[in-house]
# Entry
Amino acid sequence: EASAVLLLISLGVLVAVRLLEARGRAWKSTTR
# Structure
C-alpha cells in the first residue's frame, strides 16, 4: 500500500507542476 500511495503522490505532483506551467504560460501571454 505504501508504494501505491507514493505513486499517487508522485502523479499528483506531476499534474500540479504541469498545471502550474500551463497557467504560468497563459499568464505570461496575457500580460504581454
Observations:
- The chain has one helix and no strands.
- The mean pLDDT is 91.
- The longest helix spans residues 2-31.
